[in-house]
Amino acid sequence: MLGVHIFGTNATELVHIGQAIMGCGGTVDYLVDTVLNYPTLSEAYKVAALDVTEQAACVARLTTQMATVGAQPALSAGV
Question: Which of 15, 42, 54, 63 gets the highest tally of CB atoms within 10 A of its CB?
Fold first, then answer.
């Protein structure tokens, strides 16, 4: 990660997460493997990391498939 830019109403609630990860030398892969509370604004970090690593489409496809079947998707730290 090179930096964090957050704009909006709850920016002060989110920017510290990026600062902490950067301070510890965290990478995008660290964010992909991190479990963040759902549904919260902090989940935006995970969504962005998945998008960067092109995994977001796979997760969205799995969630859609599970919803059509009527089952709840099982989430793990690696997803």
Answer: 42
